Amino acid sequence: MELRQLEYFTAICKEMHFSRAAENLCTTQSNLSQQIKFLENELGLPLFDRIGKRIMLTEAGKILLEQSQIIFEHVDYAKRAISDLKRMEGGKLDIGILPGDGDLLFDALLIDFHKTYPKLSISVTETMDVYEQVLNGMRDLGVTTVPVNPDDRISIIPLFHEEFALAIRPDHPLAKAKAVPFDQLQQLKMVMFGSGHQITKVIEAYCQEKGIALDTPIVTSTLSTLLSLVDQGIGASILPRMLLDYINHDNIVAVKLLNPTPSQDICIIYRKDKFMGQAAKIFIKELQSFLQSVMNHSGRSFRANGDASL
């Protein structure tokens, strides 16, 4: 059994069509059929049921497809490990983050990181599907909320516990309050992110628990617009306390919310069964260090109980 034969086999499984698979592989259909025949003869069982012009995987085919995917993951791991060994300072890193996290975690961090490690290539993508994209191998790392019942292949490094606060102009009557009950938000005009944003999803869940609805006449997709609307007194908003402390806007104050205090736990996730290159290891340490400096600036404690093996 050869890797090339397994590549041919998985290509056919992807298309469920011999001629289309042959086109994708830049080979002839007769060669493809011959290689599959060699595999079937070696294994002693057919891999496909041929029903007219259609094909379907047999039970033996399903087993071979599952094991082939594992084999190719291991081959990819070996290739990446060797490549990384040849160029310790180089490498590529694809990171998925929740919408809005870039404003706090990545704008300043990426600039400093690139200056320190100019040979590393980094791609950062905002998405609500961070967990799913890391799990399916699309992203090397993900910064997201701590997943519930994660897949056994997912490793989690806790980063910090994020509380949300009321963002409001300093001349508003509530600005001088030490804390505001969550119920009182329904009496305010609010400006918020759209319904697909992670922050909005968190706040909407708390609103449902409390049985209240917020008055949100203006919805935006950007943090700069949201801050401008609060600054101009158009409405109040709800944002991560650490973000508000980090931005330190002259005309916006953060007021604690109580009963409840909305919050979420943020972590780094990655596939433990995939090779983690130097780029990813370095970035995790730099992110933890950056967060520590932000926490120190805001006078809060930082949770850095990640995997010591990194």
From TrEMBL:
<feature type="domain" description="HTH lysR-type">
    <location>
        <begin position="1"/>
        <end position="58"/>
    </location>
</feature>
<dbReference type="GO" id="GO:0003700">
    <property type="term" value="F:DNA-binding transcription factor activity"/>
</dbReference>
<dbReference type="GO" id="GO:0005829">
    <property type="term" value="C:cytosol"/>
</dbReference>
<dbReference type="InterPro" id="IPR036388">
    <property type="entry name" value="WH-like_DNA-bd_sf"/>
</dbReference>
<protein>
    <submittedName>
        <fullName>LysR family transcriptional regulator</fullName>
    </submittedName>
</protein>
<dbReference type="GO" id="GO:0003677">
    <property type="term" value="F:DNA binding"/>
</dbReference>
<dbReference type="InterPro" id="IPR036390">
    <property type="entry name" value="WH_DNA-bd_sf"/>
</dbReference>
<dbReference type="Pfam" id="PF03466">
    <property type="entry name" value="LysR_substrate"/>
</dbReference>
<comment type="similarity">
    <text>Belongs to the LysR transcriptional regulatory family.</text>
</comment>
<keyword id="KW-0805">Transcription regulation</keyword>
<dbReference type="InterPro" id="IPR005119">
    <property type="entry name" value="LysR_subst-bd"/>
</dbReference>
<keyword id="KW-0238">DNA-binding</keyword>
<dbReference type="Pfam" id="PF00126">
    <property type="entry name" value="HTH_1"/>
</dbReference>
<dbReference type="InterPro" id="IPR000847">
    <property type="entry name" value="LysR_HTH_N"/>
</dbReference>
<dbReference type="InterPro" id="IPR050950">
    <property type="entry name" value="HTH-type_LysR_regulators"/>
</dbReference>
<keyword id="KW-0804">Transcription</keyword>
